[in-house]
Amino acid sequence: MRKFPLLIAMLVSLTFASSALAAGGAAGCGFGGMLIKENKILHQIGAWFLNGLLGNQTFAMSSGTSDCKNALTAHSEQTQFVENNYSNLAKEMAMGQGENLGALANLMGCSADQTEHFAVFTKDNYNTIFKSEQETPAEMLASLKEGMSGDPALAASCPKI
Question: What are the two backbone dihedrals, phi and then psi, of residue 79, each rounded to the nearest 5 degrees?
Answer without folding.
Answer: -60, -45
